[in-house]
């Protein structure tokens, strides 16, 4: 232990590392990270420092290639979303949530199959995260983590779109669980800022309320569910059972 | 053709004669002026406007409004102003992303609505534009936008979904347009995107160029482990199998063609590839490009059969009554029956000739400077259009023959020794050597043989096997290739104008026929044109697909080409194409099955047109129909590709009596078309007999003049019919064996090819871990065996160690 502190800092969680000791190594300036995984390392380091400081997390170091930055962040999101998926497994069952819905109007198809089909919410979550992991690690589409192929860029948007539905499902159907998770990770908030910053999704599809920091300057989102007049301005009272129509509010 | 203008009744005699003289001159010049020759430039596809308008059948016209309505509904629901052109780029993007989100909804109605709205955007938001040009600009702009936001991928996903969940749960007696509504929208979006990006235009920005490149890469990538082209081919199979009669087959084929064309490349890329591959193989560069040379060539005129008659008549002038000489001539001709069909036209011509001769005799006619036929006045590019070629094989045969004749014994494998041969032979060998041309195919075959003989010491380099998109496509097509070929040919047969609608095994009309049959005369006229146009477009796309596949595989690896072509032959492609040409091909090429008013986008710009019998005829007059001429040339090229150097298949041409059919097609005055016909005639001339050659001297000289010469090839005079007994079976079987060997070497399981050279497994754990199959008897008597063979046989292990010479 003393040896490594003096000489080299090994930034690695060796087998047998205690939970408390996890990732407990001193920070490193971005310029000194010399591995090919520097961007990921940097992002994780900033998140560890303060997960709620989203601006800091999403601000790339200077001279950072934007496409790689987006890609690395999306990777990170998918990794952290697995945490939400694990939590969901204890509450979201195929019997109770037999369709992937957020607000009740829309049922989404699971795109992970040869031809898209309806899957229960938890299966959708697992399939989509698996699919995203496969895609983002695929040698064919993303052979390098230093530069991203032009033709693969379009894939990022579709991953975002599909992955976001996990947030919205958790929010509208497993509210307490979502709030717990969000309180510690700020993941949904960060994700929302991320897709807005890089324009990867339409603002109107971001239906989890009160997530946009910059929402104040935006016009109130048009409700896509025109048939539901029950939209309330107080979004805090939503219960998982009936919470069906809350749209993002200014 | 100018034959029509001659027939018009209001012409007076003099102008008729002028026409005639002009034609005579053209004939004797070996060419003709531009007005009579078809001003057709062969290309990979027609111009953008036509290619887009051919996507939609005329019965689909009312649906354009539905797209607009869907767009309006969506925009109104979201509270966004309807005017697309006035929206800011951000809002446009946001609309597209929101629509994209709808693609993954489970509700079919919402999905369909979103798809229609996207289609409307892809169509350039036509309700806001004033002109066709503006519509095209907006299409280009919008397509770029759609592509950037990943619409293409999403629509392909949607396609996967729709393929699986068609409306075929309930089988209906008659399938109509309504059954394929969703699929047609999807295909229209995909096709519009592909075609718009593919088409090069002068004002392409660099960014557009970039996007084209990346889209080209994307489209060649498999989606869910399946190439888009293969997915479409599978749809074709399904359609032919009858399990999905609602597939909009025309759109499937059009998209397939454009996807293959775009991802593999057209004429230009093919030429580059060939040059590159020849360079890699260390071969001399190509001598000339067929399309280039033929562009400068002039069409032979007038129609061959009439020409022959003129010749005959010139010889026998004033000897006997004209009519009888005609009869005599045709009776000599194998094509008598066919020519009689054209009797009327010939009679016209005969009359004119008689008239003219009468005038000549009375001195009224300005005499041409010398008696006909004139010696051809050399054109700009003097001499033969092609450099002659010789194959190595031909040189070897020549040497061997000469040696046998003068020396008395052959020297195997020697190409240089000229000892004992007379000087003219030396000269001959020199000339032959100058013109030797090793084709890429020959090189690949030799290489393949080497690879086969030395499987361990020689390895295929990466550039050889995985260089190009066609390799991936071929590998993906390989498992079902015969089915693909059969399905394509089946549809081609059903779409051929000569096939009877009753005998159609598959209904290719599902995506034209409306739900309700037309009531008025104009409506049914329109439907008639629509159906004919539909068939023509199908023929065009299939011919282009097959030709592209053949051309690309031929350059990539000759055995891939041979595999496809062999399946084409087995699926009766040769008689099918001949049957296709056994129609009035001039009429087919000049057919006008187009309603300019109903073409997209004219049909949606401005007021909806009132269709009257007159308005059906409106539009630019055209001398020929681009798509039909294109399809004909493609089919002839396919036929050429299949039969070149294949003795057994050339015999098929003879057996199916192709000569008269092909000769009749020579009437179309287009040099490229004629060139391919002449090539087909040239290869079978030997087998047609002296009589045929005598009666078709004009055609023979056209061949001499226009087709490449092969030195030492006595195509015109050879009578070595008996010398080469043909065995269809043996030749095809040998080829088949070579192709199979190639396929299994390159695409098969490595262990099956060389079982002896598999590495031996040394690892104890893996060897012991392998499941061993024991017989029941052994299991039963296992203990006995143990007792007898193991325990009762004491082994002195020390002896093993002390075994002399072991260590």
Automatic annotation (TrEMBL), chain A:
Region (Disordered): 213-250
Stored SMART domains: Mob1_phocein (SM01388)
Organism domain of life: Eukaryota
Ranges of compositional bias, category Low complexity: 218-250
Pfam families the UniProt entry points to: Mob1_phocein
Family matches, as PANTHER family: MPS ONE BINDER KINASE ACTIVATOR-LIKE MOB (PTHR22599)
Protein name: MOB kinase activator-like 4
Species the sequence originates in: Orchesella dallaii
From TrEMBL, chain B:
UniProt xrefs under SMART domains: DUF3402, N1221
Residue span, Far11/STRP C-terminal domain: 422-782
Compositionally biased spans, kind Pro residues: 366-376
Record field: transmembrane: none
Domain Far11/STRP N-terminal: 35-331
UniProt region (Disordered), positions on chain: 356-386
Entry's family note: Belongs to the STRIP family.
Protein name: Striatin-interacting protein 1
Organism of derivation: Orchesella dallaii
């Amino acid at each position: 232990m003393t040896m490594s502190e003096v000489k080299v800092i090994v930034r690695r969680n060796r087998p047998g590392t205690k939970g408390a000791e996890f990732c407990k190594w001193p920070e490193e300036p971005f310029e000194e990270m010399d591995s090919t995984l520097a961007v990921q390392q940097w992002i994780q380091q900033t998140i560890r420092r303060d997960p709620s400081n989203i601006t800091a997390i999403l601000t790339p170091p200077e001279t950072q290639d934007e496409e790689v930055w987006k890609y690395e962040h999306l990777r990170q999101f998918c990794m952290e979303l697995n945490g939400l998926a694990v939590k969901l497994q204890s509450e979201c069952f195929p019997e109770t949530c037999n369709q992937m819905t957020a607000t009740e109007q829309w049922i989404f198809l699971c795109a992970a199959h040869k031809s898209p089909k309806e899957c229960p919410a938890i299966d959708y979550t697992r399939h989509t995260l698996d699919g995203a992991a496969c895609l983002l690690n695929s040698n064919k589409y993303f052979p390098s983590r230093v530069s991203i192929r032009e033709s693969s860029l379009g894939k990022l948007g579709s991953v975002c779109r599909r992955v976001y539905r996990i947030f919205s499902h958790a929010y509208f159907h497993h509210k307490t669980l979502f709030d717990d998770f969000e309180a510690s990770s700020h993941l949904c908030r960060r994700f929302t800022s991320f897709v807005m910053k890089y324009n990867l999704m339409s603002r109107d599809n971001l239906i989890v309320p009160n997530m946009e920091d910059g929402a104040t300057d935006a016009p109130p989102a048009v409700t896509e569910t025109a048939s539901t007049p029950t939209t309330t301005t107080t979004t805090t009272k939503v219960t998982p059972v009936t919470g069906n129509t809350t749209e993002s509010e200014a | 053709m100018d034959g029509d203008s001659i027939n018009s009744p209001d012409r007076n005699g003099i102008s008729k004669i002028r026409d005639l003289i002009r034609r005579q001159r053209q004939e004797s010049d070996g060419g003709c002026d531009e007005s009579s020759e078809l001003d057709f430039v062969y290309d990979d596809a027609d111009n953008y406007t036509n290619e887009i308008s051919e996507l939609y059948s005329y019965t689909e016209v009312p649906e354009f409004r539905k797209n607009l309505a869907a767009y309006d509904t969506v925009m109104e629901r979201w509270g966004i102003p309807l005017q697309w052109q006035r929206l800011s780029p951000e809002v446009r993007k946001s609309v597209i992303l929101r629509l994209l989100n709808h693609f993954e909804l489970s509700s079919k109605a919402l999905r369909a609505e979103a798809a229609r709205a996207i289609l409307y955007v892809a169509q350039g938001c036509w309700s806001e534009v004033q002109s066709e040009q503006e519509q095209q600009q907006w299409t280009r702009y919008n397509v770029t936008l759609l592509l950037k936001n990943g619409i293409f991928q999403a629509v392909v996903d949607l396609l996967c979904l729709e393929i699986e969940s068609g409306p075929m749960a309930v089988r209906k007696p008659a399938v109509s347009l309504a059954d394929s509504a969703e699929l047609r929208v999807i295909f229209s979006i995909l096709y519009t995107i592909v075609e718009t990006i593919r088409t090069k235009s002068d004002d392409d920005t660099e960014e557009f160029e970039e996007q084209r490149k990346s889209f080209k890469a994307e489209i060649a990538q498999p989606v869910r482990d399946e190439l888009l082209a293969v997915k479409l081919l599978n749809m074709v199979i399904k359609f032919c199998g009858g399990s999905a009669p609602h597939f909009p087959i025309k759109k499937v084929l059009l998209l397939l063609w454009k996807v293959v064309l775009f991802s593999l490349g057209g004429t230009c890329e093919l030429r580059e590839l060939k040059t590159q591959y020849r360079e890699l193989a260390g071969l001399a560069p190509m001598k000339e490009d067929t399309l280039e040379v033929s562009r400068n060539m002039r069409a032979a005129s007038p129609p061959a059969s009439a020409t022959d008659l003129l010749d005959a008549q010139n010889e026998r002038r004033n000897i006997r009554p004209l009519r009888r000489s005609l009869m005599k001539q045709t009776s000599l001709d194998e094509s008598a029956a066919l020519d009689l069909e054209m009797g009327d036209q010939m009679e016209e011509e005969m009359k004119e000739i008689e008239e003219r001769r009468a005038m000549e005799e009375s001195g009224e006619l300005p005499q041409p400077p010398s008696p006909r036929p004139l010696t051809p006045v050399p054109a700009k590019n003097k001499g033969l259009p092609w450099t002659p070629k010789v194959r190595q094989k031909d040189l070897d045969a020549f040497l061997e023959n000469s040696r046998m004749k003068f020396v008395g014994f052959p020297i195997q494998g020697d190409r240089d020794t000229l000892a004992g041969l007379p000087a003219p032979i030396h000269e001959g060998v020199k000339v032959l050597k100058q013109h030797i041309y090793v084709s890429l195919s020959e090189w690949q075959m030799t290489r393949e043989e080497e690879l086969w003989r030395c499987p361990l010491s020689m390895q295929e380099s990466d550039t050889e096997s995985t260089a190009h998109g066609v390799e991936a496509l071929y590998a993906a097509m390989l498992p079902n290739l015969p089915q693909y070929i059969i399905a394509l040919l089946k549809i081609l047969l059903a779409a051929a104008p000569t096939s009877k609608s009753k005998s159609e095994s598959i209904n290719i009309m599902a995506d034209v026929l409306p739900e309700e049959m037309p009531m008025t005369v104009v409506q049914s006229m329109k439907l008639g044109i629509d159906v004919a146009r539909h068939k023509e477009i199908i023929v065009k796309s299939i011919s282009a697909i097959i030709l592209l596949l053949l051309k690309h595989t031929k350059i990539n690896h000759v055995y891939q080409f041979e595999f496809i072509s062999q399946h084409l032959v087995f699926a009766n492609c040769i008689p099918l194409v001949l049957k296709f040409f056994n129609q009035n091909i001039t009429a087919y090429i000049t057919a006008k099955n187009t309603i300019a008013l109903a073409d997209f986008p004219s049909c949606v710009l401005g007021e909806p047109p009132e269709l009257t019998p007159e308005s059906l005829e409106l539009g630019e007059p055209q001398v020929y129909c681009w798509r039909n001429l294109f399809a004909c040339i493609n089919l002839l090229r396919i036929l050429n590709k299949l039969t070149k150097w294949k003795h057994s298949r050339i015999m098929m041409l003879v057996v199916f009596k192709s000569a008269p059919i092909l000769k009749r097609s020579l009437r179309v005055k287009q040099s490229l078309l004629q060139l391919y016909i002449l090539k087909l005639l040239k290869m079978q001339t030997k087998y047609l007999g002296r009589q045929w050659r005598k009666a078709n001297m004009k055609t023979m000289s056209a061949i001499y003049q226009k087709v490449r010469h092969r030195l030492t090839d006595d195509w015109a005079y050879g009578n070595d019919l008996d010398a080469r007994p043909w065995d269809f079976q043996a030749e095809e079987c040998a080829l088949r064996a070579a192709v199979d060997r190639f396929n299994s070497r390159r695409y098969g399981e490595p262990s099956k090819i060389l079982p002896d050279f598999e590495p031996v497994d040394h690892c104890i754990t893996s060897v012991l871990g392998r499941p061993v199959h024991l017989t029941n008897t052994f299991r039963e008597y296992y203990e006995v065996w143990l007792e007898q063979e193991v325990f009762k046989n004491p082994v002195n292990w020390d002896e093993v160690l002390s075994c002399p010479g072991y260590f």
